[in-house]
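DATA SHEET
Item: assembly model
Revision: 1
Owner: S.N.
Input lines:
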Amino acid sequence: MGDQVAALKRGDAVAFTATWEQYRAPLYRFLARMVRRREVAEELLQETFLRLARRAPDLADDTDLAAWLFTVARNLCRSHLRWSLLEADTLRSLWGWRTRSATTPFEAAAHEESERALERALGRLSAKDREILLLVGVEGLTPAQAARILELSPEAARQRLSRARARLSAQLGENAPAGYLVPLGQSGQERSR
Amino acid sequence: MSTSPSNDPLLERLEALPRPDLEAHRAAGILRRTRGAFEKEAALARSPWLRWGARAWNQVLEPLTVAALVLLYAGWGLSTSAALLAERPAPTASSNR
């Protein structure tokens, strides 16, 4: 990781391409599930990497690249979601007019009904709940990394994850285990082992 | 009851969701544009003076120039409107007949 940051700081284009190959898919999935529109997710993904291009020379030597990129993507997302309140579809739905259904590309691509139900349930959650579940649950970041990205204390991130998980469970019509708390420092990769 | 993620079926279901990627031609387009910007920035970084100049232009001079032009244009618009309104002759009693 340190070598990759050093190479980016030096302006090594091969390192930039390697970073793109490594992070484009997780960032795209995160963005698409957050904004629920493929073309907007692509724009935000491009803006995320443009910011990396512009700020690479100023990165600190100990930068956690995954956390840095997800922080930029998450901030762009929040900005987009704020402005999208003024979009025509949102205004129509506020006035009770008929509006197109907001399905993510992933919902359409899901093969099984249970996957579609999970995508739909994720889509019905608030942006705050969705982002932490996507970061920790889907992309396998550690809760500590998620806390940094979301600008929360580790304890606050753990509680938010816990509440988000319970709300997702409620959306799916399942019973969440009472008092469920995610231990800190455990990543998705560790979980799947 | 406390559950650890290792035996949490909901988080495992999240992790098992489909992991589609960008379409190849779109990915190539974004990489081309962002890599171009990266190489341009890297070239600037090799020359501290050029980089300083580019930053000064992008972050200070360009916004100030745009703001100054907007103010000038708005001022011209207001003064022209005021002049046009002031030159209009007041309606006289004879013109009302």
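QC remark: Chain B has a mean pLDDT of 83.
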